[in-house]
Design a protein that fits this description.
Elements: H1 20-33, H2 50-57, H3 66-73, H4 77-82, H5 85-92, E1 101-104, E2 113-117, E3 123-127, E4 134-137, H6 138-155, H7 160-182, H8 186-191, H9 196-206, H10 209-222, H11 227-234, E5 235-238, E6 241-244, E7 251-253, H12 254-257, H13 260-280, H14 283-289, E8 293-300, E9 311-317, E10 324-331, H15 338-341, H16 349-360, E11 369-374, E12 380-387, H17 402-423, H18 426-433, H19 438-466
Antiparallel strand pairs: 1-4, 2-3, 5-6, 7-8, 8-9, 9-10, 10-12, 11-12
Helix pairs in contact: 1-18, 6-7, 6-17, 6-19, 7-17, 7-18, 7-19, 9-10, 9-17
Length: 476
């Protein structure tokens, strides 16, 4: 019998594996090229028109929901900021950057961290919104996150000194955590996570008993937010059949949206989208999904920045009515970062969101998937799927004390550093950041300056609504 040659693993010429010393050198060269102090700079375009960017973004959105979006944005400077990622993307593109990339959230602010369940039923805190995700300069996420803390601190009436301390805590946490991750192996970084017990222990160090009690109440509330909870709140019985309860304009069942002809076209589109979605799931998750049947579908307005996009909730039933599953189908548009960082490598934006979420999150929803479907207007759109609720919750940002916001900044800094360390060159980023506080102060200065810009942009939107240029529907 002739011995067969021993095969060798293929080498992919496009993948480089620099040594640790080379990665450190990369970070130091970047620091020399773009000094850390320069991250305080804000260079707004002379022809900058923030409202034009916002108006352009809603051009393809559902017309009757666009006023709801504007109504939510004029609620406060922080609400405006949540809906203004498209504006800040343009402004960030004109700032100095290190040239070191990681997977970005793209809409990184303090309300985009939340609690949810892992497939192992552990309760964790992590980044939760990836609609704008794209690879890019890691500091863009940090600048947007820091600015959100400055805006929230102003809204809560914190002194300048307290806000400054919170910003330094956020960036210090990110910087020291990245240095720590740089010393770890790849698998250690990949498996790192922040469970709720650890997060609450951080709060316990800093908060008085009553405020800590409120945080624990938020955790307990999140543990009740699952498909059964959604089933109780969002469904009704009509003619002996389960249906999603109507609450226009925020929740509108398809029976109320479409006549017989349009509904037939819509149902055909949904069937096609589900076939695509099923194919995006691994075999075991596909087998689980196939044990459920679709009962009803409704359009649902969500968030601030996403209002007006085509978002749906789907009620599915398993063994019986005591075995519900709610899925959310959310339209995925092009990332607001793409005009400045180039088009996504994924032809489907739902897949872009799916890939970014799996890259940045510790553990992702077992039903996370993606698809594409034609609309009844003939346009083809991309979507991603996930569970509507799975122990999901968040800490209330309004009326936080300085101590609570400082603890939250520490948690968010660690979480964002871990997310970036999974995809970016954490060794180079750590070498760029260094052990001093030069970068911390630069980001704090940037956050204060951009919060002023956000205030002016917010007032411009309020004036546009007041004079009738933009129509807003408030209180929804």
């Amino acid at each position: 019998m002739t011995a067969q040659p021993v095969s060798t693993l293929p080498t992919l010429a496009t993948i480089q594996h620099p040594t640790r010393d080379q990665r450190v050198a990369r970070g130091r060269v970047a620091r020399a090229t773009v000094p850390r102090s320069r991250h305080a700079e804000l260079n707004l375009a002379p022809t900058r028109d923030p409202l034009a960017l916002v108006e352009e973004q809603v051009r393809d959105r559902i017309p009757e929901l666009v006023p709801v979006r504007y109504g939510r944005m004029i609620d406060s400077p922080f609400s405006f900021y949540r809906g203004a990622a498209v504006i800040m993307a343009a402004d960030l593109s004109r700032t100095p950057n290190s040239g070191i990339h990681a997977q970005l959230c793209g809409d990184m602010h303090m309300a985009n961290f939340g609690m949810f369940a892992t497939p192992e039923r552990n309760h964790v805190l992590d980044v939760t919104d990836f609609d704008e995700t794209l690879p890019g300069p890691w500091e863009w996420d940090l600048k947007r996150l820091a600015t959100s803390f400055e805006i929230a601190g102003r809204a809560d009436g914190f002194t300048p000194a307290s806000r400054h301390a919170i910003l330094h805590e956020l960036v210090r946490s990110y910087r020291t955590s990245m240095i720590d991750f740089a010393s770890q192996g790849n698998l250690d970084v990949w498996y790192a996570r922040l469970d709720i017990d650890t997060a609450m222990a951080e709060y316990q160090k800093r908060l008085p008993r009553q405020e800590l009690k409120r945080k624990r109440k938020a955790v307990r509330k999140a543990l009740t937010r699952d498909s059964e909870h959604a089933f109780e709140r969002l469904t009704r019985v009509a003619g002996g059949e389960l249906r999603i309860a109507s609450s226009p304009p925020l929740v509108v069942p398809m029976d109320e949206l479409y006549g017989p002809v349009q509904r037939k076209r819509f149902e055909a589109a949904v069937r096609g989208m589900f076939r695509w979605y099923r194919a995006s799931l691994p075999g075991n998750r596909r087998a689980l999904l196939e044990q459920y049947r679709v009962v009803d579908i409704a359009r649902k307005a969500v968030g601030v920045g996403s209002v007006g996009t085509r978002c749906w909730i789907v009620l599915l039933i398993g063994v019986d009515k005591k075995d519900p599953l709610f899925l959310q189908i959310k339209q995925a548009e092009a990332s607001v970062l793409e005009p400045y960082l180039g088009q996504s490598r994924y032809q489907n934006h739902g897949q872009r969101v799916w890939a970014g979420q799996r890259m940045m999150q510790t553990s992702s929803d077992i039903f996370l998937g993606w698809g594409r479907a034609p609309g009844i207007d003939g346009g083809s759109r991309d979507y991603y799927f996930r569970q509507l609720r799975d122990w999901k919750g968040s800490f209330v940002i309004e009326n936080m004390s300085p101590g609570a916001m400082t603890a939250y900044a520490d948690i968010c800094g660690w979480s964002l550093a871990r997310a970036h360390a999974r995809s970016g060159d954490r060794v180079a980023i750590a070498a760029y950041l260094g052990k001093g506080e030069v970068f911390d102060e630069a980001i704090a200065q940037f956050a204060r300056a951009y919060a002023d810009v956000n205030d002016r942009d917010y007032e411009a939107l309020v004036r546009a609504v007041r004079v009738g240029r933009i129509k807003a529907r408030t209180g929804i």
